[in-house]
Amino acid sequence: MREVRSVAVIGAGTMGSGIAQLAAASGFGVTLVDVDLGLAERGCANIERRLARAVERGQLTAEEREQALARVRPAAGVDAAAQADFVVEAVVEDLEVKKATFRALDALVGEDVVLATNTSSMSITEIGAATRRPERVVGMHFFNPAPVMRLVEVIHGYATHPDTVAAAMDLARRLGRTPIEVRKDSPGFIVNRILIPLIIEACKVVEEGLATAEDVDTAITLGLNHPMGPLTLLDFTGVDVNQYVMDYFFSEFRQPQYATPRLIRELVRAGRLGRKVGHGVYDYDPATGRRLPPA
Ligand SMILES: NC(=O)c1ccc[n+]([C@@H]2O[C@H](COP(=O)([O-])OP(=O)(O)OC[C@H]3O[C@@H](n4cnc5c(N)ncnc54)[C@H](O)[C@@H]3O)[C@@H](O)[C@H]2O)c1
User: Fold this and answer.
1) What's the predicted TM-score (pTM) here?
2) What is the distance in A from the centroid of ligand 1 to the CA of 16?
3) Is 207 a catalytic residue?
4) Which residues line ligand 1 (CB under 6 A)?
5) What would the pLDDT profile of 149-172 be if each residue is shown by its tens digit?
6) What separation in Å is there between the alpha carbon of 15 and the centre of ligand 1?
7) Peptide bond just before 134 cis, omega within 30 deg
8) 28 within 8 A of 5, measured Cβ to Cβ
């Protein structure tokens, strides 16, 4: 397998720019690709802003910031990834867009180059099957914000070769992350597989009138030492996004425990999609985004 000195990150949004930042700060040459140069440059500007904040906080020297920035090159279109030693895809969560991206990358980069996807829900096996090198395709699930969250789930697709998994684990470690190996491709991998039932049960407890939403969140934050209660997290990540994931889990596992709770469907129908719109399980102050006390 090729030695990794340069990484191409495809998609310069929330996750792509975070992964590119990590790679640049860890000494890799990075090509940050989006559909047009403006979007790739916006991703670079976000990296620049976050690194400037890290310098202000004393986490980085001004020199380290300059060196990291000098390692990132914004580019338009996947062709710019041709020379990369390793590719991490972080385009939109749309299976057809991902398959088309992998098909294009497959035709472009060296046969010994690993193609990793940062999908949070889609099948690694199906994405790998869009290429002629499914043994070199692997899941690398970073968490948001990527430069802060230390976990990376490294996921086998059906045909992924163990050397490919080892290369992804190694890269994650070189990026200062802690990788865990997910030995089979399965919806939600590990973290979301465990988190989603927690959120579903929290909704059911409220629906059944056992406790208020606030008290359920207090129970989990104080009783289990979670930094955020499950219903606060539901609003934070988006009620509609959670509904999508629950519906996907239910369609794949076909088990009632994954059925989307009525509370979630009602919130989505009412347009209460969470913090991003100012209303979800809770209400938020439009000016500050802070949670308002219950009415
Ligand atoms: N946001 C999260 O919390 C989170 C966490 C873990 C994983 N993910 C996954 O990471 C991926 C990216 O999510 P995000 O939140 O960064 O999305 P985003 O919408 O912020 O960014 C996606 C970027 O991909 C670009 N893009 C779309 N098609 C492209 C193409 N063909 N070639 C190059 N660039 C293209 C878009 O222009 C956009 O800039 C998704 O698969 C998502 O499920 C997201």
Assistant:
1) 0.93
2) 7
3) no
4) 10-16, 33-35, 39, 78, 90-93, 97, 101, 118-120, 142-144
5) 999 999 999 999 999 999 999 999
6) 6
7) no
8) yes
Cβ 203 vs Cβ 263: under 8 Å: yes
Residue 37: CB atoms within 10 A of its CB come to 15
For residues 193 and 246, what is the distance between their CA atoms, to the nearest angstrom?
Answer: 10
User: Is the pLDDT reported for residue 69 higher than 80?
Assistant: yes
Q: Does the residue 1 lie in any domain?
A: no
CB 108 within 8 A of CB 81: yes
For residues 132 and 35, give the distance between their C-alpha atoms in angstroms, rounded to a whole number.
24
Distance CA 229, CA 125 (A): 33
pLDDT tens column, 177-194:
999 999 999 999 999 999
| Beta strand pairing call for 6-10 and 29-34 | parallel
Dmax over CA atoms of the chain, in Å, equals 60
Tell me, yes or no, whether 174 and 46 share the same domain.
yes
Q: How far apart are the C-alpha atoms of 282 and 293, rounded to whole Å?
A: 8
Task: Identify the active-site residue in 141, 156, 161, 279.
Answer: 141
Cα distance between the two ends of the chain = 60
Q: Is 192 a catalytic residue?
A: yes
Please name the amino acid found at residue 61.
T
CATH classification at residue 23 = 3.40.50.720
Instruction: Provide the domain limits for residue 34.
Output: 6-182
Q: Does residue 218 lie within any of the structural domains?
A: yes
